[in-house]
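Before surveying the methods themselves, let us examine one representative protein, written as a sequence plus integers encoding its fold.
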Amino acid sequence: MTIVSALTIAGSDSGGGAGIQADLKAFSSRSVYGASVITALTAQNTQNVTMVEAVSSEMIAAQIKAVLDDIDISAIKIGMLGSADVIRLVAHALAHYKGPIILDPVMVAKSGDRLLATDAEEALIEFLLPRAWLLTPNLPESACLVKAKQAETIDDMRQQANALIDRGARAVLMKGGHSSAAVCHDLLVQDGREVSFTAPRLKTRNTHGTGCSLSSAIAAEIAKGKTMVDAVQISHQWLQGALKKADSLNIGNGYGPVHHFHEFWL
């Protein structure tokens, strides 16, 4: 069996439920070796984020170079970057990387704390959107990026996805978890066609890290050679299992993590 490797470039979550920690758990659960580049340190738990400290530009660049110089990376997932300067730095550091990039535009934490400076949104669109094989915004993030109200219908989601493709992304997965509908709809738009992924809304508050985990699982499946549609389908199904078993972890007093290893224990 050949083990492939994926890289996550994102912030660290001291509570272990999102960010780098969730990414590496998702990679591992999908049988992919994970390497990491930490862009920011956050002091957070299941209830809130109490402090965010950026990693120096020199250190971020050095981490990227160290990984890519030595490890054969089959896919890269990009998460929390925090500022326009870091966005530009990461885009420059990945200029010669030709593999697939999954971009999760992390803007706001589950607690509501802002994780991307508002002036960095245009930098994200200009420098990283054209590099993204797949962009995975939730509904509030997509609304911010296209400067529109939050999508309420499938048609709204389709329009916003196409607007983001017009701005450079090869494909967009609109995540519908922030809607109020009893059934959650995720919509993948790629090459002029679309595929819908649906699941009943689960009654759990333990959803911390769902976005990070889904995008990382997709990156892992892409690294293994799956098509975009198959990678999203497999990852969507895996995340539903992780949400169904999330309550069994009983972590923290707020929004607990999903269960990345639900297929193996508990």
